[in-house]
Amino acid sequence: MSGIRLENVFKAYGDATVVRDLSLTIPQGEFFTLLGPSGSGKTTTLSIIAGFTMADRGRVFINGRDATRAEPRERGLGMVFQNYAIFPHLNVFENVAFPLTVKKVPKVEIAKRVADALEMVKLTGFERRYARQLSGGQQQRVALARAIVAHPPIVLMDEPLGALDKNLRYHMQMEIKEISTRLGMTVVYVTHDQEEALTMSDRIAIMNGGVIAQMGPPREVYERPQSAFVAKFLGEADLIRVERQSGCLVGPGSLPVRAGEDNGSLQKGQLFLRPEKVTLCDPGTGEAGCTLRGKVHQVAFLGNVIRFEVELEDGTIILSDVANAAGIKNFPVGAAVDVTWLPEHARLLED
Ligand SMILES: Nc1ncnc2c1ncn2[C@@H]1O[C@H](COP(=O)(O)OP(=O)(O)OP(=O)(O)O)[C@@H](O)[C@H]1O
Predict the structure, then answer these.
(1) Whose CA is nearest to atom 17 of ligand 1?
(2) Residue range 307-330, pLDDT digits in tens
(3) ipTM > 0.90?
(4) Which PANTHER family does the entry link to (predicted)?
């Protein structure tokens, strides 16, 4: 089997468990992202795949071979690590050419491949420069070009765009995605930027405390989080306390609330909604069962979106994001409103 497989990988430093019996399979050609807060074990997991860190227990398979004890250079992986600096004694051309030079690729082929890679990272014309003559972001792009120039089947990337400004970052996201798809590369990508993870990945694993809290395609983890942690980590989340009374779910103000997949088992928990799925209307006009009462607490202008903060009767603050389109209805601070949603957009989460 090609791709990557981890089996019960465990790593601790002293008393601190950093990766806890992690098992996962990443098929060849998948863009797979490890996303999570600082210290959740993303880099350690990537480093175990790379061979820089040895797991205490468990096994690592790369392209069907047991690579648990293999040296990093035996694993045939392309890598861009946070601190994986470019060689200071080589210029940009020589740095990018390095993986091809060691493979003894013909000079003409090297020149072409390096030119393509440098064009991708927008560094054409920088060939003769050395690391000390480049900014942090430029060095990062050289490292990226070097990682993919040999078209390795698997590339590991740890925050490779961290030092770039917003526009270049977006351009590079698109380029990395395009080239990995075109070459059928498997990419294991580490980031703590949820937007980047949603944009680029085929599948995302959200890590928390050394375990995978949830794993799935971007849309699924965003729209169907299984816990409040995942809901909150992947963007803004509205969470409303609910409990069952005489078989019916009720929210603040004892008003009945409905969620799409309520099988009647949850007694107490939270109703989850994304702010863009929450709408506001005049008091008394919302449909019973998916309406709560509130008061506009704040209005924020975010450019393409207007964000209303609404305070419910129990003090919970709910966000409602409305596209800044022609003719949108404005609700001023202090206005009484109904907060409404479609039941299929609401999910019930256990505490
Ligand atoms: N060599 C080490 N010795 C001791 N503790 C370590 C070592 N490497 C990592 N850790 C600890 O392991 C935990 C997980 O670290 P890791 O770098 O994998 O997290 P991360 O999710 O990648 O975080 P970040 O987004 O900040 O890079 C952290 O608490 C870190 O301090």
Answers:
(1) 43
(2) 999 999 999 999 999 999 888 888
(3) yes
(4) SPERMIDINE/PUTRESCINE IMPORT ATP-BINDING PROTEIN POTA (PTHR42781), SPERMIDINE_PUTRESCINE IMPORT ATP-BINDING PROTEIN POTA (PTHR42781:SF6)
